[in-house]
Write a structure and sequence with these properties.
Order of helices and strands: HHHEEHEEEE
Number of helices: 4
Helix content: 25-40%
CATH class: Alpha Beta
Number of domains: 1
Distance between the termini: 48 Å
Radius of gyration: 18 Å
Largest sheet: 6 strands, mixed
Strand content: 25-35%
Shape: globular
Number of strands: 6
CATH topology: Nuclear Transport Factor 2, Chain: A
C-alpha cells in the first residue's frame, strides 16, 4: 500500500500541490476531534485554493463554493476518520488527476472507495475546481435489476 508520503518527495509542480492538499486534509481530519476545531481550521487548505472562484463538484453532483465546502468538511471531519492510499497522479496543462483508495469511518459505517479527483488550476496555480468521481462496491445486490432478462420480456 503506497501512501502520499511515499511519493510526494518525487513529485513537483501542480501534482505536488494536489498531494499536499491530501496531506493537509488528512492532518486536519485527525485534528478535528480536538476542542476548538472550526471552519477557520481549514485555513492551511485554503492557502492552496482560489477561494473566490472555487467550485467543488462531489460524487453525487453536489456543487459547493469554498465557504460551503469548508462547512461540509468541518461537519464531516469532526465525526469521521479518513485515510487514503496513493494509486496514480497524472498532470496535464491545467489539470491534475489524482487516483486514491479512500477509507473512511463514521460511527459503525466503514467505507472503502476508489476515487479519481480532477483538480483544475487557475493561472496563479491555485485550485479553482475539484470534481470527484468514485467507484464503490454495490451495497445490496438484491436491489440491482437483472438486465440479462430484460430482452426476454419482448
Amino acid at each position: 500500500m503506497t501512501t502520499i508520503d511515499d511519493v510526494i518527495g518525487e513529485t513537483s509542480g501542480r501534482s505536488r500541490a494536489v498531494l499536499e492538499y491530501s496531506q493537509i486534509t488528512k492532518r486536519l481530519v485527525e485534528s478535528a476531534k480536538q476542542p476548538g476545531f472550526t471552519v477557520e481550521s481549514w485555513a492551511p487548505l485554503a492557502e492552496l485554493i482560489a477561494v473566490g472562484e472555487f467550485v467543488r463538484i462531489g460524487p453525487f453532483k453536489e456543487v459547493m463554493n469554498w465557504d460551503e465546502y469548508a462547512e461540509f468538511l468541518t461537519n464531516w471531519a469532526v465525526s469521521a476518520d479518513w485515510d487514503c492510499s496513493f494509486q496514480r497522479v497524472t498532470e496535464t496543462a491545467d489539470l491534475v488527476f489524482l487516483e486514491l483508495e479512500e477509507r473512511s469511518r463514521m460511527g459503525d459505517f466503514n467505507s472503502v472507495v476508489n476515487t479519481v479527483s480532477v483538480y483544475e488550476f487557475n493561472a496563479d496555480d491555485k485550485l479553482r475546481r475539484i470534481a470527484v468521481y468514485l467507484q464503490m462496491e454495490l451495497p445490496n445486490l438484491g436491489s440491482v435489476p437483472n438486465f440479462e432478462s430484460a430482452g426476454a420480456a419482448e
